[in-house]
Amino acid sequence: MEHVGTTGARRSPTCLLLTWGVTRLLLLLFVFKVYVFPGPDVTSDVSVIYQDWYDILRTGTFPLDDVTWQYPPAAALAILSPALLPGLDYASAFFVLAFLADLVVLALLVYAGLRPGRRLRGAWVWGAGVPLLGPTVYARYDVLVVAVAVAALLAGSRHPRLMGALAGFGAMLKVWPALLLLGARRRGTWAAAAVTVSGLAAVFAVSMPGAFAFLTFQRDRGTEVESLGSLVFHVARHHGWAGEVLLNYGSVEFVGPWVTYVSTAALALTGMAFGWLLLWRLLATRFEAHTMADAAFVAVLMFTTTSRVISPQYLVWLVGLAAVCLCFRDSRMGAPAGMLLVACFVTVLEFPLWFAHVVASDPLGVILLSVRNVLLVLATVTAARILWRATVPKPGQAQIPGQAPRTKETSAS
After folding, report:
1. Three-class DSSP category at 254
2. Which residues of 134-157 are buried (b: 16+ CB within 10 A; e: fewer)?
3. What is the pLDDT of residues 373-413, one digit of tens each?
4. Rounded-to-integer distance, Cα 295 and Cα 412, Å
5. Which long-range contacts (CB under 8 A, 24 or more apart) does 349-354 make?
6. Omega within 30 of 0 (cis) for the link into 72
7. Pairing of strands 244-248, 251-255
8. Nearest-5° angle of CA 368, CA 374, CA 375?
9. pTM for this prediction
10. 3-state DSSP call for residue 373?
């Protein structure tokens, strides 16, 4: 029996690496246009938009006149990173770096999954989830941010200051990694994050003009055609709604009557999600080794689902966080992770494959979008319920004053 178990353990990583290698080769063939992926060209963001930003950033300033620059200042490092590969043109270097970031995430998840009390299920989620989203993953810088976020979560309770520093750096790349701190219980983690954010902010503010111009660039955005709130207008277009679909602030959005109200409602839902997370943090007393990852997964699910914009690359954030959750044997996030993987597959159907149908609000586009968004809502509600039940005691089981909260963080690490 021992021999069989050992053989199975050896085969599993081999099969995982083979699957990863084949699927990533396909992604590279698509972004390098050896084969053309159906639908709009997803690589134009890199070859046109990122390339233009790169040329501006190299002069020592941010794109002050470009409202599509909507990222924290450290995002400049991601946009400038292809300079690390001088032998390649900008787009090719970017795709190679995205591939390497993907590999780093896999390596971290495999390393974590082979430790005692862990498993490789998380690495399999990453291996399968990324290709389900298609070549868009390699044509955005989000996969680089996910690598930082995964490293931060896996550092966890063993290296709290390192986790805080990585989470802070990730937040300066694309804001959402700040949510990784939700389940952190050590002051050193929060202190390291604060020092990292403050230090980076100061450096960019002093050295590059316009470091925080992004804070005002999203002020007048509409409702993006793939968001949850967009379903209102997809249906309304068939009943005489007078608005239109425009390329606005770097994405395809609905613009016209009532859009402001739907966008405000989305912001209100995000506010309610933040309130729920704050309440959870105040009431939670049972913290296991996986709780930090579970809380991060729930938080990012909530903020993604309620956002005015649900771009396809947002789902790679969730895939990375779900993968970290499922590295832990005791995590119960399997069901929402499964819903997320199905949502990834539906996402690649609606973008880029049949994005024209989504923009036209025809039945196929509306059905695909509805299915994807319903899956995200179900995953969010299910994950939040699991987190609450696992960490917040029932009224009759309130924590006794003075008693230390239950935790397995130290022993499990």
Report:
1. strand
2. bbbbbbbbbbbbbbbbbbbbbbbb
3. 999 999 999 999 999 999 999 876 655 444 444 544 433 33
4. 17
5. 350/226, 351/39, 351/40, 351/136, 351/226, 351/312, 352/37, 352/38, 352/39, 352/40, 352/42, 352/134, 352/136, 353/38, 353/39, 353/134, 354/39
6. no
7. antiparallel
8. 90
9. 0.93
10. helix
